[in-house]
Amino acid sequence: MIASPPPRIAVTSTATGLFLMSFFTLLWASNTFAGWPVAAATAVLALAVIAVTCFVAQGVRLLRARRRFPAELSADDARYRKRSGRAFGLIFGAEGLLIWLSVVALNATDRTDYVVPVIALIVGLHFYPMGRIFRRRIDLYLATWTCLVALAGVAAIAAGIAVEHVTPAVGLGAAAATTAYGVYMFRGGAGLLRRAGEAATPAG
Predict the structure, then answer these.
(1) Does the keyword Transmembrane helix apply (predicted)?
(2) 97 lies in a domain?
(3) Residues 41-69: pLDDT tens digits?
(4) I need a surface site. Which of 17, 66, 103, 110 has the fewest CB within 10 A?
C-alpha cells in the first residue's frame, strides 16, 4: 500500500526553508571576510555557494512539483498549520526586533565588537521554540550549537581577543548551522518528491 502524498503546503514550506537557509548561509559565511585572508574567506564562500546552489535547485524542483500534491488539508492539519504559522510569525518577528534593539544598544554604548556574536546568540535562541512548534529535534541541536558558538564569541571579545578573529569564527560557526539545516531540508524535499512520484505511479 502506497501512502498518500503530503499536503501541498508542506512542499511549499520546505522550499521556502531552503531559500531562507540559502540566504542566511551566504550572509554568515561572508563574515569570514571581516578578518581572514581573502583566499581563505573566498574558499569558505565558494563552499557556501556550492551548498546554496544545491538548496536553491531543490527548492525550485519542489515548487515546480507542488501541483502534484493535494491542496486540501485535514481538519487536524489545518488547525496545526494555522497554530504553527501564527507562532512562527510571532517568534520570527520577536527575533528581528531583538536583533534590531541589540544592534542599536551596542552601537549606542560603543560595543560594536559584540554585534555579530549577539546576533548569533539571538538566532540560536530562536531555534528552541521552533523545534517545539514544528516538532523537529534538529532545531534543538542547531540551537545549542549556535548558542555555544555565540557565547564563545562573546567570551572571546570580553577576554580582549580582536574582533577580526572573533567575527569570522562566529560567522563560520553560524554558517555551519544554517548549512546543516539546509541539508536537512534538502533531504526532506527529496523524500517529498519521492513520495509524490510513488503516489503518481499506478500499482502494477
Answers:
(1) yes
(2) yes
(3) 999 999 999 999 999 999 999 999 888 88
(4) 110
23 falls within a domain = yes
Instruction: Report if residue 45 sits inside a domain.
Output: yes
Range of the domain at 181: 8-76+84-200
**pLDDT of 15 strictly over 90:** yes
CA distances in angstroms from 79 to 82, 84, 97, 106, listed in the order given = 5, 9, 27, 40
d(CA 191, CA 120): 30
Of residues 181, 180, 174, the one with CA closest to residue 146: 174
> Does 40 fall in a domain?
yes
pTM: 0.87
Could you say which DSSP state residue 1 is in? -
